[in-house]
Design a protein that fits this description.
Blueprint (H helix, E strand, L loop, with lengths): L3 H12 L4 E5 L4 H9 L6 E5 L5 H15 L4 E2 L32 H22 L13 E6 L12 H16 L3 H5 L1 E8 L5 H4 L2 H4 L12 H13 L8 E5 L2 E4 L18 H13 L9
Parallel strand pairs: 1-2, 3-4, 4-5, 5-6
Antiparallel strand pairs: 6-7
Helix pairs in contact: 1-9, 3-4, 4-5
Amino acid sequence: MLKGINYCFAKLLLSRGCNVLIADLGLRPEAQKLVEEYQTQPRAVFQKTDVTKWNQLERMFEVANKEFGGVDIVCPGAGIFDPDFSNFWHPPGTAKSRDAPDGDRYTSIDINVTHPIRTTQLAIREFVNPKNGVRVSTTNPKRVLIISSIAGQTSNLHAAIYVAAKHAMSGFVRSLGSLDKELGIRVNGVAPGVVKTPLWTDNADKMELLDSKKDVWATPEEVAEAMVRLLEEPDLGGGVILEVGHNQTREVQQFNDPGPSGEGHTVSRMDETYKEVYKRLKQGGWGKARL
């Protein structure tokens, strides 16, 4: 559901006169108010969407064309943080997992990797074959914004699939970087640190990583502002990824990057979650399917 970073980004776009299509499974109360507030011009429209279903991703573009006459900015922002139901340390078929042992997929990968890749693919198809309006070009540019994470630069035993997904997104963004100068399609990424959103606050396992006396939150508003910078600033071309912490934003370098540091990037209790993993593996029987 639209929340946190995505909510702040949608709100910021609307405040700047952009129409916004919200495509998600449902609306939290704050997002519902946004839809109710923006019913004329600019407009906010909700389209119920399961981002793991490709036909529903295609439907997003059909609705955007019908409601707004075209698409200029696409942000596949849905994401989950290694929930127990789709987690490396709760394999398919075990008690907490909802991934079927014969299902050939991880839900977390479907949401965090496959969905943004497929959405970007559909966006580019729309940009070069617009049903309405003018084809994309360097004088009629279009934008795709991917939400990555500082996990795309770091490692975390406790959240191995999430880290793999965010590394994948960083590589994906960089790989499409040259489309900007050639075709006017700018694909960028934003890499938030520890941001106070429901992705954290609604996740008890994730909150265990934090020490409230030592760790500092970044805000979703800071991330949304960085996302708008990626849309607008000419120096932040295709393939650029902006890292956002507490009162700090910087460009992540492809090579020899120093990595995230400072407030809004650290969690003090990471070692405790590692101990849980070690304990689970030492007990025996790990990974065996439930009867």
